[in-house]
Amino acid sequence: MSAEPLRLAVVTASVRERRFGPTVTRWITAEARAYGRFDLDELDLAEAALPSWITEECPPQVDALRPRLAAADAFLVVTPEYNRGYPASLKTLIDWYIEEWQAKPFGFVSYGGRSGALRSVDHLGSVLCDLHAVPLRDVVSFHDAWEEFDENGRCREPEGAGAAAKVLLDRLTWWGTALRTARRERPYNR
Ligand SMILES: Cc1cc2nc3c(=O)[nH]c(=O)nc-3n(C[C@H](O)[C@H](O)[C@H](O)COP(=O)(O)O)c2cc1C
């Protein structure tokens, strides 16, 4: 396994006012930092403010993000679920780019009510496959998420959640390294 750190882009998908998402992002980002193999890039879609109207000419916000996405070896998406689907902000992100996703792994940390936003993850899987990305099977999912973190944003069951995070980070490392090597040997889709 390569000693070169993997560039991992951590995407916070929710852009709602008073959103819970950043609490979950802070937790998984800390886990990923402690894991020690990643060069992290935190991408908050609320800050990216991508236009949802796709135009032929790229707006500056879209171009500004492109090099960060292109540089990523792997993506870790922190997503809720709204009415059984993933957020429109995430679909907007996905739809603005093409090559930036290809032959790269996607891991998910989902959070929500009883479903733990797992239906979001299912939908994302089929969309990302269509874009030649590699959605991973192992997911970290918080069911009734607001009960899983205390008022200071600390995870109430750090051992169980940490073990699930490790599996996900292991998979991201394996796929991220394997696909980076493969893309360098032979650029995808050319
Ligand atoms: C419009 C809307 C629809 C929702 N639909 C679902 C749902 O289908 N499944 C679920 O588990 N939670 C659902 N929820 C609850 C969200 O999981 C909860 O509000 C969560 O905090 C959303 O993440 P955010 O605060 O980071 O945006 C919904 C919330 C909203 C506002």
From TrEMBL:
It comes from the Bacteria. Keywords: Oxidoreductase. InterPro entries: Flavoprotein-like_sf, FMN_Rdtase-like_dom, NAD(P)H-dep_reductase. The keyword Oxidoreductase applies. Residues 7-146 form the NADPH-dependent FMN reductase-like domain. Signal peptide: none annotated. GO terms for molecular function: oxidoreductase activity. Its EC number is 1.-.-.-. It is an enzyme of class 1 (oxidoreductase). This is NADPH-dependent FMN reductase. It comes from Nocardiopsis mangrovi.
